[in-house]
């Protein structure tokens, strides 16, 4: 891509695990400075789903949560709790993220 066109491009990171970043505030500032217009934060278990809703609230209009349920990241007793959490908070996310389709392959 030509440099001028790249500078005009609007970029959105559509798959980030923000709960795993140590200095999140700095990382988000750097992303904004680089021209990233927003971040879809994909999570995969009850703990990360709760964290990303808080991060999205703190960065409203820039971080968009994608709640998820990845079978590789959960034990049996967390399944119902996480699915219930997702159901109760589905209105707060933009998409469902990790849903475990790759585990079927």
Shape: elongated
Strand count, sense and closure of the main sheet?
Answer: 4 strands, parallel
By secondary-structure content and strand pairing, the structural class works out as alpha/beta
Poorly predicted parts: none
- The fraction of residues assigned to DSSP E strands is 15-25%
Q: Sketch the topology as an H/E string, one letter per element.
A: HEHEHEHE
CATH class: Alpha Beta
CATH architecture: Alpha-Beta Barrel
CATH topology: TIM Barrel
Given the structure, what is the number of helices? 4
Radius of gyration: 15 Å
CATH superfamily: Metal-dependent hydrolases
Number of distinct beta strands:
4
Q: Give the end-to-end Cα distance, rounded to a whole number of Å.
A: 35 Å
Average pLDDT for all residues: 87
Number of structural domains: 1
Specify the oligomeric state: single chain
Main sheet strand line-up: 1-2-3-4
State the helical fraction.
Answer: 40-55%
Write up what this structure looks like.
The chain has 105 residues and is α/β, with parallel strands linked by helices. The chain has a single domain, classed as Metal-dependent hydrolases (TIM Barrel). Helices cover 41% and strands 19% of the residues. It has helices spanning 3-8, 24-33, 46-58, 76-89, and strands at residues 11-16, 36-42, 63-67, 95-96. It has a four-stranded parallel sheet with strand order 1-2-3-4. Strand 1, helix 2 and strand 2 (36-42) form a beta-alpha-beta unit. The longest helix has 14 residues, at 76-89. The protein is elongated and about 50 Å long. The termini are far apart. The mean pLDDT is 87.
């Amino acid at each position: 891509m030509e440099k001028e066109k790249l500078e005009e491009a609007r970029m959105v990171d559509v798959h980030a695990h923000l709960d795993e970043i140590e200095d999140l505030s700095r990382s988000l500032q750097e992303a904004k400075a680089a021209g990233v217009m927003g971040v879809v934060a994909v999570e995969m278990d009850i703990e990360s789903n709760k964290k990303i809703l808080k991060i999205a609230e703190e960065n409203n209009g820039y971080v968009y949560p994608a709640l998820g349920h990845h079978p590789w990241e959960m034990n049996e007793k967390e399944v119902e709790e996480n699915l219930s959490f997702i159901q109760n908070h589905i209105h707060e996310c933009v998409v469902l993220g990790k849903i475990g389709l790759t585990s079927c392959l």
